[in-house]
Amino acid sequence: KLGFQAHYPQLETKLAARGENEADLAALLAPAEAEVRKRLGNFIIAEDDQTLEGVILATLLERGLTLSTAEMFTGGHLAARLAPLAGAEHAFRRGVVARDPGELAVTEVSTVAAEAVASDLRKTSRSSHAMSLLIELDQGADRPDFGGTIAIGIADGDTVVSRQARLIGGREWVRAGAVELGLDCLRRHLLGLPVDERIDFERR
Q1: How does 150-175 read in b/e, with b if 16+ C-beta sit within 10 Å?
Q2: Are 45 and 179 a contacting pair, CB within 8 Å?
Q3: Taking every pair of C-alpha atoms in the chain, what is the biggest distance, in angstroms?
Q4: What is the rounded CA–CA span in Å between residue 50 and residue 23?
């Protein structure tokens, strides 16, 4: 059986089978697991007891890399996904939280601005990697069609990559989705995967 369960902003996929013993189960699950991996591809962010932030931290620690982050509107939730983890003191260097774009020297939310913020932060923090998460919210009261434009920039010693997206669904929906999208882009960059594949929650 293949089941799905939504925990916005993640979708959990479960495979279940019955067999006489461990070997029987392994034989039954192997082709189904292979097909799931083939279809979901780069969208598999974690498996079993892993978490998205755990995968990122493990990759940083394994390669001896360090990370700093800068975020707008999300109130430090991006840094809070990584900094409390065991071992993060060896990889997470700095988290910058700002609500006013001017505090990050940003005049408009764009991929160009996100790249510039990430590049500057990498240099000032002396981290191997830095990521910026910039958000421009819609005007007016919170409502179901309230949305935001997200610009993500990731800088390392060799390259700078960026990603822009739009999420709608209310302020909390945008905040949670932006944090998840930012972390997933970082995971993809660290693993050599494309950062610009569209997600189901994204709007044009």
Answers
A1: bbbbbbbeeebbbbebebbbbbebbb
A2: no
A3: 63
A4: 24
pLDDT for the residue 181: 97
Q: What is the DSSP string of the chain?
A: -EEEEEETTEEEEEE----SSHHHHHHHHHHHHHHHHHHHGGG----TT--HHHHHHHHHHHHT--EEEEEESSTTHHHHHHTTSTTGGGTEEEEEEESSGGGGT-SS-SHHHHHHHHHHHHHHHT-SEEEEEEEEEPSSS--TT-EEEEEEEEE-SS-EEEEEEEEES-HHHHHHHHHHHHHHHHHHHHTT--S----TT---
Other residues' Cβ atoms within 10 Å of the Cβ of residue 58: 15
Residues ≥6 apart with Cβ < 8 Å to 184: 45, 52, 199
Distance in angstroms (rounded) separating the CA atoms of residues 31 and 118: 42
Rounded-to-integer distance, Cα 129 and Cα 173, Å: 27
The encoded tokens of residue 148 equal: 């935001």
Which of the residues in the chain have pLDDT under 70? 204
- The pLDDT, as a whole number, for residue 87 is 98
